[in-house]
Design brief:
The structure is a single chain. The chain has two domains: about 80 residues, Alpha-Beta Plaits; about 70 residues, Alpha-Beta Plaits. Helix content is about 25%, strand content about 40%. The strands form two sheets. Strands 5, 6, 7, 8 and 9 form a five-stranded antiparallel beta sheet that branches. It has a four-stranded antiparallel beta sheet with strand order 2-3-1-4, with helices on one face.
């Protein structure tokens, strides 16, 4: 791919200390990278958080950023999940203005996309949608006839899949 920019997914485990998010974001800013999304939350280990960073750049540039992340004392591990077997998801909440007569149509579309209506008021509905970014984008494309009042998206989160070994025709687990 000749070093053309693409979106890479990095997952970093970091110590839960004040200022870590700022230092990580500054590292990317100083190198001129666009962070497409950044999600941070507690990890399975007390005192540590997991950051999922979707960053745009060439494979070589992102590899250099990985090395720079390790120079931050709070960074415990970094894994580039780009192209690796992984489960990725995003959460979106979409507030849509709808009349009472339009609610069944929006509810049906939401159901087709396996979303959930999480709030209904006299003039709007809030839809919760989880899945791949492309699924959420497709949902938004389909509901263009309904005026969207607000959208809140988490950005991608990711976990590497376990290596299941050679296929032998049997289900594992």
């Amino acid at each position: 791919m000749n070093g053309a920019p693409e979106t890479h997914t990095l997952v970093a485990t970091v110590a839960d200390h004040p200022g870590v998010l700022t230092r990580v974001a500054s590292l990317f800013r100083r190198r001129g990278f666009n962070i497409a999304s950044l999600a941070v939350g507690h990890s399975e280990e007390p005192g540590y958080s997991r950051m999922t960073i979707a960053v745009e750049g060439s494979a070589e540039e992102v590899k250099q950023c990985e090395k720079q992340l390790y120079k931050l004392v709070e960074v415990v591990s970094v894994r580039n999940l780009t192209g690796a077997p992984a489960v990725t998801r995003e959460l979106a909440m979409i507030k849509v203005r709808v009349k009472a007569t339009e609610r069944p149509g929006l509810a049906e579309i939401t159901d087709i996309f396996r979303g959930e209506i999480v709030d209904v008021s006299k003039s709007s509905m809030i839809v919760q949608m989880t899945g791949a970014q492309s699924k959420i984008d497709r949902f938004l494309d389909v509901i263009t006839e309904y005026p969207i009042e607000e959208i809140s998206r988490t950005g991608v989160i990711a976990i590497a899949r376990d290596d299941v070994g050679p296929r032998n025709g049997r289900a594992r687990g």
